Each structure stands twice: as structure tokens, then as C-alpha cells.
């Protein structure tokens, strides 16, 4: 089976105007992870966490996919084998570009989760600690995003795809957050050719066979054209 697995991170959405986490001026230079991206921080001050995610949800709703998202959607549509996109991003820009097969391993801003009963639903534009779960009525609503200390979604499925991949690519991710940082090593061990597309070497750059350095919107369209066997302009 000719399976391609693509991992994306905040860098692919940077040129759509959504900030990355660890670059200079990134999200984690303005907010403390312990406050807004851990279950303990949420329990301490739900209003602060909701404000943070409400602002990010509003920005994500305004953002438009860039040439890299569009190229990956084109690859999914045109490649004769399976192309699985695994994203750490909580925006919906892959879907907005037309991708269908997207695994959101860190959840989605557009979804809400009841911490009391596990029910999930479409998040309103603004969530608050006063919201009641539509199913159990508990006031324990949170964004359906994965926080530090929690297990990312659909890991068994992702591991199955990595084990069967012929090609693995990581685009716009710093390789500092696990388990995603270990995907290249897993895919390489299973026999996949591994490509890193990022302006600078990630923390796990040594696990890749090939590096394409540059911004996603500049590099990914040409890389996709090459995979599809299309002639490229010099
Ligand atoms: P990071 O902010 O850690 O890394 C973003 C990467 O994108 C960096 O390596 C940048 O060099 C690169 N980058 C910047 N601009 C780019 C561009 N135009 N094109 C391509 N790459 C570019 O973001 P992630 O690796 O996605 O999780 O972070 C992983 C996880 O850490 C996130 O999902 C989030 C965060 O904490 C949780 O909150 C659980």
C-alpha cells in the first residue's frame, strides 16, 4: 500500500496569521502553559483558560488556509494511495483547504467537551465556566483540546498509519512535544522515508532522512508537485 503520513504543527498555519508556540514572540512567551494548557490550570481558573481559547477560536475562525494547506489537500485528492494528515493544530485550516482525512491529535477549537460525562459538541464562539453540558447539565465544559499531562487522541490509529507508511513528512513543528516528536523515528524504523519541512532543524531533525528548509507556503507546493510527478518551473 502506498501510504503517506504527514504530521503538521503550528508552523504550517503561521502564514495564515496564527501564531506558533515557541518562536520568538510565540504564544508560550505571552501565556504560561501551566495556566492555560493543563487540567490543573483549568481547575484553578477556568475563566482565564476560556478567555485564552475564546480568543484563539476567534482568530482561527478569521484565518484562511495558505498555499501549504491547499497543496496537501491537492495531494490527498490526486495521490493514488492513501494520504493521512495528522495535525497537532487545533485550527480547521486543513479542512478549510479541502482535506478530508485529518486526525486532530491535540483536539479542535471548534469542539467542546464535558469534563463530567465526556459528551462532545460543536463549541459556541465564546465558552464560559457557566455553560451547562447539553447532555448532563454539569457546569464542567471545556474546550476539546488536549492539554499537557493528557493523552493525545487516536494514538492507536496514528501508530497503525506510521507502521504502514512509505513516506512520512513533518511540516512546521519544533519536535519538542511528545508523542508527536517521536513519529519520525517510529516511521523510519518501519521503513518509511522521512522528510522534515521546516525553516530550521527541529529538536528531532536527526531522525529524518531528508530536510527541506524554508516556509511551508514556499516549500510544500513544490514538494507536492514532485510527489505527483508534475513538472516544476525552475
Ligand atoms: P512550535 O511553536 O513548537 O513550533 C513551530 C515550528 O514551526 C518551529 O520549528 C518553527 O521553526 C516552524 N515555523 C515557523 N514559521 C514557519 C513557516 N512559515 N513554515 C513552516 N514552519 C514554520 O509548534 P508545534 O511544534 O506545533 O500543544 O507545537 C507542538 C505543540 O506544542 C502544540 O500542538 C501545542 C504546543 O504546546 C498543546 O498545547 C498540547
Tell me about this structure.
Helix 6 packs parallel to helix 10 (216-227). The chain has helices spanning 10-14, 27-30, 33-36, 39-44, 46-62, 67-78, 93-96, 155-163, 183-189, 216-227; strands at residues 3-8, 83-87, 102-104, 107-114, 120-122, 141-145, 165-171, 193-197, 210-212. It has 2 domains: 1-18 and 64-106 and 152-234, 3-Layer(aba) Sandwich (Rossmann fold), CATH 3.40.50; 19-62 and 107-145, SIR2/SIRT2 'Small Domain' (2-Layer Sandwich). It has 234 residues and is of the alpha/beta class. 41% of the residues are buried. The strands form 2 sheets. A 6-stranded parallel β-sheet has the order 3-2-1-7-8-9, sandwiched between helices. 2'-O-acetyl adenosine-5-diphosphoribose (OAD) is lined by residues 9-11, 14-15, 20-23, 26, 37, 88, 106, 146-148, 172-174, 176-177, 198-200, 202, 215-216.
Question: Ligands bound here?
Answer: 2'-O-acetyl adenosine-5-diphosphoribose
Largest sheet strand order = 3-2-1-7-8-9
Q: Given the C-alpha coordinates, what overall shape results?
A: globular
Q: What is the CATH C level class of the largest domain, in words?
A: Alpha Beta
CA-CA gap between termini: 32 Å
Question: What is the ordering of alpha helices and beta strands?
Answer: EHHHHHHEHEEEEHEHEEH
Please count the beta strands (DSSP E, at least 2 residues each).
Answer: 9
- Strand proportion, as a percent range, falls in 15-25%
What CATH architecture of the largest domain would you give?
3-Layer(aba) Sandwich
CA radius of gyration:
18 Å
Amino acid at each position: 500500500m502506498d501510504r503517506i503520513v504527514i504530521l503538521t504543527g503550528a508552523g504550517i498555519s503561521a502564514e495564515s496569521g496564527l501564531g506558533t508556540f515557541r518562536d520568538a514572540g510565540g504564544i508560550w512567551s505571552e501565556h504560561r502553559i501551566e495556566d492555560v494548557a493543563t487540567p490543573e490550570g483549568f481547575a484553578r481558573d477556568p475563566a482565564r483558560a476560556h478567555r485564552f481559547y475564546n480568543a484563539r477560536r476567534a482568530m482561527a475562525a478569521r484565518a484562511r488556509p495558505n498555499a501549504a494547506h491547499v497543496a496537501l489537500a491537492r495531494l490527498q485528492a490526486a495521490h493514488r494511495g492513501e494520504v493521512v494528515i495528522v495535525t497537532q493544530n487545533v485550527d480547521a485550516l486543513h479542512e478549510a483547504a479541502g482535506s478530508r482525512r485529518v486526525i486532530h491529535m491535540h483536539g479542535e477549537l471548534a469542539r467542546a467537551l464535558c469534563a463530567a460525562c465526556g459528551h462532545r459538541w460543536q463549541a459556541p464562539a465564546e465558552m464560559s465556566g457557566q455553560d451547562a453540558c447539553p447532555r448532563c447539565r454539569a457546569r464542567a465544559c471545556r474546550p476539546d483540546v488536549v492539554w499537557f499531562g493528557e493523552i493525545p487522541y487516536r494514538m492507536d490509529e496514528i501508530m497503525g498509519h506510521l507502521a504502514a507508511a512509505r513516506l512520512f513528512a513533518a511540516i512546521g513543528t519544533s519536535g519538542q512535544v511528545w508523542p508527536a516528536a517521536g513519529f519520525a523515528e517510529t516511521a523510519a524504523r518501519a521503513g518509511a522515508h522521512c522528510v522534515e519541512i521546516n525553516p530550521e532543524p527541529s529538536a528531532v531533525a536527526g531522525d529524518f532522512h531528508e530536510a527541506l528548509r524554508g516556509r511551508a507556503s514556499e516549500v510544500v507546493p513544490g514538494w507536492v508537485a514532485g510527489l505527483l510527478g508534475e513538472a516544476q518551473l525552475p
